[in-house]
Write a structure and sequence with these properties.
This protein has about 290 residues and is α+β, with helices and mostly antiparallel strands. It has 2 domains: about 5-235, Hsp33 domain; about 240-290, HSP33 redox switch-like (CBS domain Like, Alpha-Beta Complex). About 35% of the residues lie in helices and about 30% in strands. The protein has 10 helices and 13 strands. A 6-stranded mixed β-sheet has the order 7-6-3-4-5-11, covered by helices on one side. The chain has a 5-stranded antiparallel β-sheet with strand order 8-9-2-1-10, sandwiched between helices. A hairpin with a 5-residue loop joins β8 (about 155-165) and β9 (about 170-180). α1 crosses α2 and α8 (about 240-250) crosses α9. The longest helix is centred in the first third of the chain and has 18 residues, at about 35-55. The termini are far apart. Pfam families: HSP33.
Length: about 290
């Protein structure tokens, strides 16, 4: 199944919506990082949020989400760009906890108390930076608070990840619904009523076979709207061997050779995608010979 994000505008610019299905995106992250069900749910929600927020960007821009808490998961880092590329990781992917009192994966307890940081590289001299404390650690509620508090945009954010018995991802997706200036009370009331259809979350609807278009229709039922963009999103990292070669050079020749002597290889792992890059003695000799200056 493709990972699709839709962008739509409703009632002559009174509301905008970003909605998508990200099942394969989240499954790719689970596979790469070998995450526990709890870590899959937490990372998957933030990856989905990143994909949705990436659809807000203009060409060449990038957004970074950082959920840094005092719970056992530690922190979640996700970066998304304007081309639909999303990457991310959770600091402690192996963590498992008991289900919460609703019988669901306890993402809030996994993250604990902490801060959400949003950084946007908009091509300006300095990146935009915004931050808010966690409201609940449930990701969606924290982002809802962020948009209202830091960007002064009343919003509703729904994010979800459903896990199969074999621990793979069964369904993942979400939405960001935002009121724009001069939204009429009648429109607001319709949206509030429509959001009640998502009271059990977004993933049961996705699991039942509903795609982005159908989710959008539920969110904007009774409201005239237009889809303004349809985009594919994917888990894709920027790392490559050349980038990691620069990391080896920055280690310094003495430290690089010390690691080689102890380990018989120099292995570096990208945090964001868990790809491993191995450098042998000949590789290190060549790198430092080429960079003597």
């Amino acid at each position: 199944m493709e990972n699709i994000i839709l962008r739509a505008s409703g009632e002559k610019g009174q509301v905008r919506v970003f909605v998508g299905v990200t099942t394969e995106l989240v499954e790719e992250a689970r596979r790469r990082h070998n995450t526990s069900p709890l870590a899959t749910a937490a990372l998957g929600r933030v990856l989905t949020a990143g994909a949705l927020m990436g659809a807000m960007l203009k060409e060449g821009q990038e957004v970074s989400l950082q959920f840094i808490g005092d719970g056992p998961l530690g922190a979640i880092f996700v970066i998304a760009d304007s081309k639909g590329n999303v990457r991310g990781y959770v600091r402690h992917p192996e963590v498992e906890l008991d289900l919460n009192d609703k019988g669901k994966l306890d993402v809030a307890k996994g993250l604990g108390k902490g801060m959400l940081y949003v950084l946007k590289d908009l091509g300006l001299k300095e990146p935009y930076k915004g931050s808010v404390p966690f409201v609940s650690g449930e990701i969606g509620e924290d982002l809802t608070y962020y948009f209202t508090k830091s960007e002064q945009t009343p919003s509703a954010v729904g994010l979800g990840v459903l896990i199969n018995p074999d621990l793979t991802v069964k369904a993942a997706g979400g939405f960001i619904l935002q009121l724009l200036p001069h939204a009429e009370e009648e429109v607001i009331q319709k949206l509030e009523n429509n959001l009640k259809k998502f009271s059990n979350g977004v993933t049961p609807l996705i699991d039942a076979g509903k795609g982005p278009e159908e989710l959008l229709a539920l969110l904007l039922e009774g409201i005239e709207y237009k889809i303004t963009e349809r985009r594919n999103v994917r888990f894709k990292c920027k790392c490559n061997r050349e980038r990691l070669e620069r990391v080896v050079i920055n280690l310094g020749e003495d430290e690089a050779r010390d690691i080689l002597e102890k380990e018989n290889k120099l292995e570096l792992t990208c945090h964001f995608c868990n790809e491993k890059y191995v450098f042998g003695e000949e590789d290190v000799d060549k790198l430092f010979a080429e960079n003597k200056d």
